[in-house]
């Protein structure tokens, strides 16, 4: 595929959300349009003690073990870490963070604070995950993901002074409405519309853009106020409109589109106390089914079963290789790890492992007094910048309390080859578009300190005077996190044929994880992939028995 | 003012939020542009026991008494009802509702449920109210006011089948973007833009509207899915786009604009357990300063003080007229009530009382199992319809619990003259635009049962099969609620000269309440109006002493 074509698909994928590249490929005739069927619901078939070994105790592995356990299977989960959840990881006081390149950090937050280093949001359409929270008694609260009071900042807009998101959104709409009304008035759509439709369209645009009687956009109260309404005689005065040209220069659209992607839309939820309340709730039901500190090394299968060799490490010095046999295996580890294992996969699987690409998302968390609430009326939501650190997120846990956690950066970062164990994570600048370009700038910063400085600088740009209030940083770079080596399978990589291969068993080995679903980068994809595997296994033992 | 002019201002006021009529009048040269100064902050001056009698224990009266009390004033609040809060009223099991026309209802909700019959939302920009919640220890939670999963319904759209709000929002944007891109391509804006700007504008529109490579809008994942993304091979398929003509016919814009009005924007809050937690928190600090069951009848003032006669009713049969004297009076009752009193106001005040108009908002609440969550992923937010009952609101308290309160209707209702004690509430159909036209239809329904039926019908239209699940209705019609006789001063009525009069003392009488502010229909306006009066009183005793 030509670079242009590929970039185009990539852009469509980013602007429209995951999977729009698929749809586009379909509409371009690059893929056969499959029959329109929804996911099959989970059907549990009595396993009668059939043994399943599940590799990886992330959401996919936990869901598989939990449901198969209900259905009378005999399950073992091998999990390399000493905790459940995989990418679902909440960092608190005392958490040790170690990168593959040897970088070490220890979290020094105050006791009540947590930082969801991986997943932080549950969309209201993710019924499977919400259902598990309900079933397992994980208490949820509303997660506020967008706020019109959050800021947007570009050196090219408003002289570099941040503006509230409501100004970008509504001034853009005002300008677009004015321009279209003007064209219609000029007769540019006379061939396409009846007179009556034109009039209705113009009346609509007047409201849509809050245009003045001459159909000009001269600012709107929707964009907030220079002088807010009060109880004195003074009437409120709206902000002056931002110029369309500056808005185009600033290119802050991604931040305004996010809330139109169904999965980033209100109403979103979060477990009270940290996202890891979910895997811990699963783990408490699974108990001894999970073996922690069990690092899978070798995978072999025969006509009658699978044999897994793993290294069990109780402490730092004690490690021993162990063997486990089972009838079936569910491989729910990231492909970046799977490809490093000694395994007798089919050539089809091997070729996927050889070519797959993962992204490396990073997040930086700080502890700080809640100046964003007190001074800017920002309670939750995300500010966007065109800077090395291009996003500042205000987690909505414990709103109104004294201090909070601030996410000073969350984006896909360029990972230089020399620091990365997973060479496929290295991507050239070319394939990145804004804001991933900022991810390239960020990823090229020489060291941890430079990255923290960039983060502090972005917070300072948005909240002048408060860069200095940031304390106890934690930087997570998922491409360098052992046992993950990436944040998710690259949206750019997605390929319907590969997906079909990953969704079919390699003899007795079934692949699970969000990377085997259309819901990449979401726990819902991981959970539903486990359901798919369970249905496949159920059908298999049913037809066998 | 001609009807057209007046309607135009009214529309501008509605589309842009309160006060945009003011701004428009200013920009049309109808009002002098005042100097741009923000509200003066509250300054407390030692009252040294100066006596203030405060008429009405709504938010304005409570704030006045609370702050003056801090400053060493001797305050008495006369409140006709047997509870504090006025319009801030949460209805629970056992609450008796009685209209001026004799209609009686008793609330039969389950114990944990409440219905905020008046205020239900605190915007994050209302620092005064949020500050009081903090100061008084009123616990807040996020109130979810809009959800793209909520529905929009018109008989003219999609064959009458409700569509998720995300479809209306994003399909509209898609069509607008396509039309403008087309005009630009045709050269309609060649005079206004450079070649480079045109290209940038088109690239922006492609993203803004999620247009296809030919710059046509053919649907978008932002509008949700026919086949949602899953973990099977099936790719997601977005909904088919709604036609622009149908969207124009349906005229559901108001519902989509609401979230662009700063005061209806995320992040919003609500007190946990009911909005009345706020007045009860004030009341617990004020204690015996408030006299309940004290209905003001007569107001007189001299050069040295004010004399108020009120009727004190302890029980139904015991009532006695009492007199209270004070140095100053703060009149914080609705003007619909004030005008019925025997009072020696100035001619300026009297002429305002003679002409003022109030709106009559209504709300209908039901108790029901949370089918909207379980079946439609709606957690909070508001659905809009073009029906007699044109709005269904899903309060976000206790999300995920078994049953909840559903608001089946909240709008401004036409109040026929014969049923209304306050004749100024009678407004003709002419002055109403959509959706107030629905308010006319609703208000013309013959009786309570017909109104409840209309409410049930709207819920049934949005959630087929669930009309029958609605139980224990409560209908509040603010124009018929004693001691309020209206929901708020009419946005249509607002008049800068009248406001100036109401903001100046009538000798020793000061007017407070949201109707004396630019923040009509919000507690923030009531609270800030109290601050203004306190500042005025402080300046007065300071210059006197
Ligand atoms: C930065 C970030 C933000 C995200 N945001 C969200 C969000 O807001 N909402 C949401 O729902 N989702 C979000 N996600 C996605 C979500 O985290 C994943 O979809 C989900 O957690 C994946 O689960 P999984 O079981 O497929 O994989 P993982 O969680 O990666 O589980 C794999 C498991 O395999 C184990 N393992 C690896 N190697 C070995 C080995 N050799 N031997 C034994 N075990 C091994 C790992 O320790 C791990 O426990 C986010 C992810 C990231 C990284
Ligand atoms: C349907 C509805 C929805 C609303 N939604 C919101 C919202 O979401 N958020 C928000 O912040 N605001 C909202 N408001 C507005 C808010 O309720 C008001 O702005 C605020 O409560 C007004 O306070 P007040 O003290 O000015 O008036 P009131 O609350 O009306 O107080 C007047 C007081 O005077 C008393 N009184 C009347 N007559 C007499 C008499 N003769 N003698 C003695 N006492 C008397 C009354 O009993 C009452 O207690 C809403 C209002 C309504 C009606």
From TrEMBL, chains A, B:
Keywords (A to Z) from UniProt: Auxin biosynthesis, Oxidoreductase
| Enzyme class per UniProt | oxidoreductase
Q: Where is the Amine oxidase domain?
A: 59-381
Q: EC number(s) in its UniProt entry?
A: 1.13.12.3
Task: Give the matching Gene3D superfamilies.
Answer: 1.20.1440.240, 3.90.660.10, FAD/NAD(P)-binding domain
Q: Which GO terms describe its biological process?
A: auxin biosynthetic process
Record GO terms (molecular function): tryptophan 2-monooxygenase activity
Residue intervals passing through the bilayer: none
| Pfam families xref list | Amino_oxidase (PF01593)
Q: Which InterPro entries match?
A: Amino_oxidase (IPR002937), FAD/NAD-bd_sf (IPR036188), Flavin_monoamine_oxidase (IPR050281), TAT_signal (IPR006311)
Q: Part of which pathway?
A: Plant hormone metabolism; auxin biosynthesis
Catalysed reaction, written as an equation: L-tryptophan + O2 = indole-3-acetamide + CO2 + H2O
Q: Which family does it belong to?
A: Belongs to the tryptophan 2-monooxygenase family.
Q: Give the matching PANTHER family.
A: FLAVIN MONOAMINE OXIDASE, LYSINE-SPECIFIC HISTONE DEMETHYLASE 2
Recorded protein name is: Tryptophan 2-monooxygenase
Q: Which organism is it from?
A: Candidatus Sulfuritelmatomonas gaucii
């Amino acid at each position: 595929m030509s670079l242009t074509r590929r970039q185009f698909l990539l852009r469509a994928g980013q602007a429209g959300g995951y999977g729009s590249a698929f749809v586009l490929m379909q509409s371009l005739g690059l893929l056969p349009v499959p029959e329109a069927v929804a996911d099959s619901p989970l059907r549990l078939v009595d396993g009668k003690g059939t043994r399943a070994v599940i590799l990886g105790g992330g959401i996919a592995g936990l869901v598989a073990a939990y449901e198969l356990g209900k259905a009378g299977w005999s399950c073992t989960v091998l999990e390399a870490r000493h905790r459940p959840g995989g990418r679902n990881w909440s960092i608190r006081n005392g958490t040790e963070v170690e990168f593959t390149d040897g970088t070490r950090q220890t979290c020094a937050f105050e006791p009540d604070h947590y930082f969801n280093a991986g997943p932080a949001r549950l969309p209201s359409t993710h019924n499977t995950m919400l259902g598990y929270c309900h079933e397992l008694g994980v208490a949820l609260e509303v997660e506020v993901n967008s706020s019109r009071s959050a800021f947007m900042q570009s050196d090219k807009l408003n002289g570099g002074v941040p503006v509230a998101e409501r100004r970008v959104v509504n001034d853009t709409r005002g300008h677009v409405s004015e321009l279209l009304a003007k064209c219609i008035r000029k007769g540019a759509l006379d061939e396409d519309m009846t007179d009556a439709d034109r009039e209705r369209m113009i009346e609509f645009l007047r409201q849509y853009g809050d245009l003045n009687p001459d159909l000009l956009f001269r600012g709107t109260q929707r964009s907030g106020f220079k002088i807010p309404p009060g109880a004195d005689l003074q009437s409120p005065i709206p902000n002056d409109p931002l110029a369309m040209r500056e808005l185009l220069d600033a290119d802050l659209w991604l931040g305004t589109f996010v809330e139109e992607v169904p999965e980033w839309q209100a109403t979103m939820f979060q477990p009270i106390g940290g996202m890891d309340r979910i895997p811990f709730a699963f783990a408490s039901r699974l108990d001894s089914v999970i073996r922690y500190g069990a690092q899978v090394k070798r995978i072999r299968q025969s006509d009658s079963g699978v044999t897994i060799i793993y290294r069990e490490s109780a402490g730092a010095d004690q490690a021993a290789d162990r063997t486990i046999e089972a009838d079936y295996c569910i491989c729910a580890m990231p492909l970046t790890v799977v490809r490093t294992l000694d395994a007798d996969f089919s050539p089809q699987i091997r070729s996927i492992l050889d070519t797959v690409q993962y992204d490396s998302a990073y997040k930086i968390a700080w502890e700080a007094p809640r100046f964003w609430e007190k001074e800017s009326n920002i309670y939750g939501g995300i500010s966007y910048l065109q800077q090395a650190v291009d996003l500042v997120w205000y987690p909505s846990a414990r709103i109104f309390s004294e201090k909070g956690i601030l996410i000073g950066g969350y984006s896909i970062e360029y990972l230089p080859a020399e620091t990365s164990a997973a060479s496929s994570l290295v991507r050239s600048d070319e394939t990145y578009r804004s804001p991933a370009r900022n991810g390239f700038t960020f990823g090229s910063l020489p060291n941890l300190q430079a990255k923290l400085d960039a983060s502090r600088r972005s917070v300072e740009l948005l909240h002048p005077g408060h860069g200095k209030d940031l304390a106890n940083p934690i930087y997570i770079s998922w491409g360098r996190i052992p046992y993950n080596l990436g944040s998710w399978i690259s949206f750019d990589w997605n390929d319907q044929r590969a997906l079909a291969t990953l969704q079919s068993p390699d003899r007795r080995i079934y692949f699970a994880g969000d990377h085997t679903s259309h819901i990449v980068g979401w726990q819902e994809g991981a959970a539903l992939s486990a359901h798919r595997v369970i249905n496949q296994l159920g059908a298999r033992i049913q037809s066998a028995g």
